[in-house]
Structures are given as structure tokens and as C-alpha cells.
Predict the 3D structure of the following.
Amino acid sequence: MIKSIPALLVGLRFLIGPFLLWDAVDGQTSQGFIIAFIVAFLSDIFDGIIARRLGVSTAKLRQADSWADVCLYLCIAYSAWQVHREIVLTFQWPLLSVVFIQLVWWVVNLIKYGQPASYHTYSAKLWGLTLFAATVAMFGFNYAGIALWLAIIVGFIHTMEEIAMTLILPQWTHDVLSIFHALKLRDRGSASP
């Protein structure tokens, strides 16, 4: 049972995403939105830590973790459109640039590996922190400003790093922490972390 905790935390994120959509469908959110989002954010932090400590961090679990993040943030994006449309429209071009570069990331990974990467880089962790701050600022305080700009900038840089990593690494692998780690793996002739 204990070894299934990381998978349960990942599953929890898959469940919280639709709850966030439901809470925002009428154009406003309750306090439950922020509470659920914080729980989802904490589950994202602790699923990997617990999985590594229990020795159950597998490629399948890491991929599920990545998909849970995608699900959660797609739900948040739609919720932002429902509740804070004026903010989304004000930031539409910077937001669309991040969406575009993320789509490029998907295409590059699908062409090269036939599946999305699951690197879990330091820059991804930083982007997660900035997305957390931007989401809490927007839904908790009706503010975007610096928090959203920072999330956009970090997201763009993070995605560029991961595109470069995909171009560098000869085969699909997971848990490659940075482009420097990818270069070392390539130079060793192996894509195993």
C-alpha cells in the first residue's frame, strides 16, 4: 500500500483538474478552487520525492506525472478563460507564444521519440513554481502582473531547453535534470540517467 502513494498522488492531480473546471464553469471560483489547486501542487512536489525514496520511480510513473501536470494546467487555463478572460486577453500574445513553443516541443518529441519527453528538469520545477505563483495570484487575488509575466518567461526558457535536450539525446529517457546532464549522457553514448 505504501508503495502506491506516488501513483495515488498522481491520480489525485488527474481528479483535481476536472474539479477546478467545475468550480469555474459559472465564471467565478470558490475558496475550494485555491485549496484544491494547492493540494494538487503539493501532490506534484511529493509524488516524485516519495517515489524515489520508496524506489518506485519508473518511466511509466514519471510519464503519468507529466500527463497529470498537462491535465491540471489545461484545466487551469480553461478556468482562467472562464473567470479572468480580461487577463487572458491582455496577455494573449505572450501566452500564445508559450502555447506555440510547447506545441513545437510536442512535435519535436513525437517526431524523434514517438512520445512526449518526461525530463523533469530543474527548469520545469522552476516553471512549476512560477505557475503556482501566477495561479494563486490570479485566482486568489485577481492579479496577474509580474507573476504571470515571470511564468511566461520561465515557461518559454524551460521549453527551449527541453527542445534542445530532445535534439541532443539519441533516445527517449526520463529524469534528465538539465541540458548539461543531457550533454553528459550524449557524450557517454547512453541515454540512461
User: Anything to note?
Assistant: Residues 13 and 40 are 5 Å apart (CA to CA). The chain has a mean pLDDT of 94.
